[in-house]
Amino acid sequence: MPPYRQRSGANPAPRPGAPARRPSWRAVLAAGAAALLAACTSPTPEPVKPSPAAPPNIIGVMSFNVCGGQCPPTLPTTQWASTVAAVIDENRSEVVMLQEICRSQYLALSDLLGKRDRAVGTPYTFAWKPTLTNNAACKVWGEAPNRAETGYFGNAILIRGTDAIKYRTDVALPNPYGHEPRFMICLDTAFEQTVRVCNVHIDYHPESRKVQLAHVAKLVGGWAATRPVVLGGDLNIRPDAPELQALYSAPLGMGRLAEVDDTDKRFFGGGCTGATVRCRTGETTMRETSDTKVSYIFASDGHFKIMDGGVGRGYAPLSSHLPLFGLLAVTPPASAPPSAAASGTP
């Protein structure tokens, strides 16, 4: 299977006169390889020039609501895990954020990706947080080795590499109306510099959603002021909702984050036309609808350059949701404040 950006029919055709789509990570790497090959085979050597600075570290990110506790399985658990692992590997995702994953699904995937031989592929470090311990629907994925954990259901983060987690904090989100408990998992991991990665699944009830999004925006905005932050997950809300004003950076909002799909003009609408560069829109992340974006990958402004973003449509149905991918280039800081480089601190 080709990666999401080269998938035949994966995205609608651009509108006439629309600007070209941002290059995918494969295009970026191919262009670099072509330039290197041309330089090495040129019959007339170029004059010696100062070596350019090392390119910024590129991070592939994936966010996917796998709908484990709600959607009937389309594959047996082990085959589901191998299929998801293939999607992750195919898109070279260094950071993977999964929502609504049952304990047996999590264990099958962590056994496959976390313990594999390096000759097969780089193993991943896993972090898991159950939000429910009694989700009866999770039984369809089989009993967990510890039978008491079969109904466990929650969210997970995968980071490519062994011992990749330097610091972890689990944030309990406000739940004043007594709905399903929600958490945000946040990890510190090292790329070009220490990056805080957070995965969250926001409540769909409007009253809880508003309170939880405000809480997340306050925390993440504070962190993003001094360090690189990636926030992903299912926010259960469309991009133009007022509740996201505190996440999107100017001119789209009052926050500190940009979203991987907010420059794709094929999906611009309303007032986002003409010379508009960014828009609070994006490709749908639901399999059965054409205009429902609820999954997001945000990155802190000033710390990342968003190189690409999009939805993977060509995979076999694994969920009612579609996987969202982003390609981020870490921008080395000119002079990082001490707290930005610190690891193991809130």
Question: What's a concise summary of this model?
Answer:
The chain is an alpha+beta fold. It is built from 5 helices and 12 strands.
Overview of this protein structure:
The chain is of the alpha+beta class. The chain has a single domain (54-331), classed as Endonuclease/exonuclease/phosphatase (Deoxyribonuclease I, Chain A, 4-Layer Sandwich). The chain is 19% helix and 25% strand. It contains five helices and twelve strands. It has helices spanning 25-41, 77-90, 103-114, 206-224, 338-341, and strands spanning 58-65, 95-102, 124-132, 153-160, 167-172, 183-190, 194-201, 229-234, 257-259, 295-300, 304-311, 324-330. A six-stranded mixed β-sheet has the order 3-4-2-1-12-11, covered by helices on one side. Strands 5-6-7-8-10-9 form a six-stranded mixed β-sheet, covered by helices on one side.
Question: How much is the average pLDDT?
Answer: 82
Question: In the CATH classification, which architecture applies?
Answer: 4-Layer Sandwich
Strand content: 15-25%
Please report the first level of CATH classification, the CATH class.
Answer: Alpha Beta
Helix content: 10-25%
Structural class: alpha+beta
